[in-house]
Amino acid sequence: MAQDLSERKFGILFDWFDRTSDGWLTRDDFEQMAALFNTLAPPEDQENRNATREAFLRWWDLLSEADAADAEQRVGRPQFLAVMSSHVIHPDNFKDIVPRIIDSLMRVVDTDGSGTLSADEYIRMYDALGVPPSTSTPAFHLIDRDHDGSISHDEFRTAIEEFYLGTDPEAAGHHLLGSPFEPE
After folding, report:
1. Using one digit for the tens of pLDDT, what is the confidence trace for 118-156?
2. pTM (2 decimals)?
3. Residue 1's pLDDT band (boundaries 50, 70, 90)?
4. Domain 2-175: which CATH class?
5. CB-based contacts of 72, cutoff 8 Å, min separation 6
6. Under 8 Å between Cβ of 139 and 102
């Protein structure tokens, strides 16, 4: 059951990363993902824009280091799922990649500098990904565990850890990609 849950979650993640919708992940897909998030940052915020790009490219590097890429430097769904389970969620790698992404996304998306994500900031992030507010708004309320109207760094990190590491299909973190994760 936990394996099926992980495969379904990581399949959703594969589709999210596959910016070209060609069924393959390439370095360019990860570049595009970083660029997408960087559209949310002020143009003068080069430090956070660079951090976001580096965080996503570190993920691509881990896929490459795990020999998931084929001769054309593409990673297919089966290889991605295998590397997610064997490498990305490994505690050492997870601690290297995921906090970088959490920190950079929080800084890029937190446009008012409050240290938290307001509903508008969170919804704007998902709008950039093509997710409608009718989907991202309920997810915001689930992730805002203390119901104070904002998502703290800890709440965001908890949700991300639930998505990547969690086995509870009811966890709020399964809503991170903009649509509720429904168990089969």
Report:
1. 999 999 888 887 778 888 898 899 999 999 999 999 999
2. 0.82
3. very low
4. mainly alpha
5. none
6. no
Q: Which of 146, 125, 152 is nearest to 136 (CA)?
A: 125
How far is it, in rounded angstroms, from Cα 24 to Cα 9?
Answer: 17
